[in-house]
Amino acid sequence: MHITQLNRECLLHLFSFLDKNSRKNLAKTCHKLLEVFQDPLLWSLLNFHSPVELKKDNFLLGPALKHLSICWYSERVKVCNIEDWMKNGFQKDFCNRHENTVSDFLLDVCNRCPNLLSLTLSGCGHVTDDCILQLLKNCPNLKSLKLENCVRITDHTLEAVTLHGASLRTLHVDFCRNVTRAGLERVREKCPSVTLRAERSVNMIPDSKPEKKLMLEKASRKLVQL
User: What is the residue-wise DSSP string for 64-104?
Assistant: First the structure.
């Protein structure tokens, strides 16, 4: 039996076991398999492992998407998660090449995926509070928001959760060093039904400019002299 002789349900089940590249390659072989590739039922879950994957055409983005994960665990992610003023020229150039890649993709999700239920971002050092705010506004059914090592996330995101996260039940801001204890306490107060986790976030060293760093060093030296 040839694969194209299988019914639609069987083909969808077969495609579900394939990664995005394999699905795309199989879809190129004939019109019937292309139609299966384009079936929204196949795209309720998307996982990405680097910003580069977001620019490919091997997936579909639409209302059927329920669960989205963008987790960048490469050693290179450390470059984007150090303070901007500490980066050398090479590091800045590297970051500039994908400065808006994840944010632009998430804004596309805002416009095309209103039924999103869960979002996980890890190592996405360029994602901003404004981006998360738009997601919360445009995806009212979002139940789980997990942010890890996203250094530009601040208390503004926590405030957005209290205002627009009516459906939210899980919030993680692990290793997000620019959120504060006050921001977390506000979420606990305003959203008691949300399971909140902030592993190694509060009291971590926040981003700071060289001037502020210099002032702190001078203050420390004075204390030592005393």
Answer: T--EEEEE--STTHHHHTS-GGG--HHHHHHHHTTTTHHHH
Instruction: Identify whether the C-beta of residue 155 lies closer than 8 Å to the C-beta of residue 180.
Output: yes
- Out of 48-57, 61-70, 110-119, 181-190, which region has the weakest mean confidence (pLDDT)? 48-57
State which residues form the domain around 12. 1-42
User: Considering 27, 42, 57, which residue would you say is the last residue of a domain?
Assistant: 42
Count: domains in the chain: 2
Both 77 and 147 in a single domain? yes
The CATH number given to whatever domain includes residue 181 is 3.80.10
Residues 114 and 161 grouped into a single domain = yes
Tell me what pLDDT residue 125 has: 84
pTM here is 0.83
Whether 38 and 137 share a structural domain: no
Check whether 218 has a pLDDT greater than 70. Answer: no
User: Which residue in 154, 97, 144, 151 sits closest to 124, CA to CA?
Assistant: 151
